[in-house]
Design goal:
Strand content: 15-25%
Number of strands: 14
Structural class: alpha/beta
CATH topology of the largest domain: Dihydrodipicolinate Reductase, domain 2
Bound molecules: NADP nicotinamide-adenine-dinucleotide phosphate
CATH superfamily of the largest domain: Dihydrodipicolinate Reductase, domain 2
Distance between the termini: 15 Å
Order of helices and strands: EHEEEEEHEEHEHHEEHEHEEH
Helix content: 25-40%
Strand order of the largest sheet: 5-2-1-6-7-8
Length: 341
């Protein structure tokens, strides 16, 4: 029997897109519910050509639910994901609440689908958006030559901060275009229009930000290799959707650009958009609305024994969140792994 699905955080930037991706990918279900905060309860929500009503999060809302696709702030997930799991559902959670819990698999289907074989808490974590697109690109290269060290700098879109982050940039851009005073930042730490913010994240436990620590730790967990060194600098840029990353990789063994190109071209979920000798490269606008990770500007780094540089771009709301979560849900449903526990 097809599952009963609940989309939690259905009114948010990721939640809205999850609804769309559920339809696009034809996820099978016999009933679907849309949950959010009290603020949204009772409001209509479009799902394909149907209109549903948003329900407030409650114990009752999870009755008979088999699969939850959650995208709320981590504080909310910490409370409600265990409630849903206790009620018998398997939860695929987009927040950072459970990612580093050793009893919660952290999954990118192109990289470590086998992690779904064990879901002791009934919760599966979707990784951070910047981490997802990076590990999709790193995995085929790791298999080829063993990754020793990664130095990554991100160029992250305003929608990475949800619906309010997007509204913040849009309001500032509109004011700039109209020659009006630019409104003060509401979601980001400072004005984003015409600016670049390397400090738009909570401080981490040392001088790295929380976002930088997510990239370091989540990469090791997903790749199943704690020896991989990751040095990250995360930066917000005035782009609506689509994160870009400059990635420098140092390998244990020799690897040529031609070998890397062949491996990337053959890997699932990757579009090799690399045309050496031309001025073409993947862009956030070019990747918006796409589910794949785009890799370009592949070139040797001769400053280390075995090194490569690449430019990796993906839609942060799709592959960085909604698509990855729905791919996980799809694997769970089709493997029969969400039978009521
Ligand atoms: N944006 C990205 O690129 C991205 C990528 C990967 C992961 N994530 C993660 O995914 C999660 C959602 O992100 P988002 O960008 O979609 O944020 P968002 O646009 O702010 O949406 C947040 C959602 O959570 C709901 N919510 C907030 N407080 C709630 C409460 N007290 N009770 C019940 N529901 C509540 C909101 O409902 P109301 O509308 O009723 O307030 C809304 O549906 C976050 O944990 C984020 O870190 C985001």
């Amino acid at each position: 029997m097809d599952p009963v699905i609940a989309i939690v955080g259905a009114t948010g930037a990721v939640g809205e897109l999850m609804c769309r991706v559920v339809i696009e990918r034809r996820l099978p279900f016999r009933e679907i519910r849309f949950l959010a905060s009290e603020r949204s309860a009772g409001k209509p929500i479009r799902f394909g050509d149907q209109t549903h009503t948003v329900l407030a999060l409650s114990n009752e809302a999870f009755r008979d639910v088999d699969l939850v696709l959650a995208s709320t702030p981590a504080t909310i997930s910490r409370i409600w994901s265990p409630v849903a799991a206790e009620a018998g559902a398997t939860v695929v959670d987009n927040s950072s609440a459970w990612r580093m819990d050793p009893e919660v698999p952290l999954v990118v289907p192109e990289v470590n689908p086998e992690a779904l074989d064990r879901i002791p808490k009934g919760i599966v974590a979707n990784p951070n958006c910047s981490t997802i697109q990076m590990v999709v690109a790193l995995k085929p290269l790791h298999d080829l030559a063993g990754i020793k060290r990664v130095v990554v700098s991100t160029y992250q879109a305003s929608s990475g901060k949800g619906a309010t982050g997007l509204a913040d940039l849009d309001a500032q851009v509109r004011a700039l275009g109209a020659g009006h005073p630019v409104p003060a930042a509401a979601a980001h730490i400072d004005r984003l229009a015409g600016n670049v913010l390397a400090h738009d994240w909570k401080p981490g436990e040392d001088d790295n930000s929380e976002e930088e620590w997510k990239m370091i730790r989540e990469t090791r967990k997903i790749m199943g290799d704690d020896s991989i060194q990751v040095s990250a600098t995360t930066v917000r840029v005035p782009v609506r959707t689509g994160h870009s990353e400059s990635i420098n990789v140092e390998f244990h063994r020799p690897i040529t650009v031609a070998e890397a190109r062949r491996a990337l071209a053959a890997a699932p979920g990757i579009i090799l958009a690399d045309a050496p000798g031309t001025q073409s490269a993947p862009t956030p606008l070019g990747c918006e609305g796409r589910d794949e990770v785009f890799v370009g500007r592949l070139r040797a780094d001769p400053t280390v024994p075995y090194g490569l540089n690449m430019w990796v771009v993906a839609d942060n709301l799709r592959k960085g969140a909604a698509t990855n979560a729905v791919q996980i849900a799809d694997l769970l449903i089709r493997s029969g792994n969400i039978k009521r526990r």
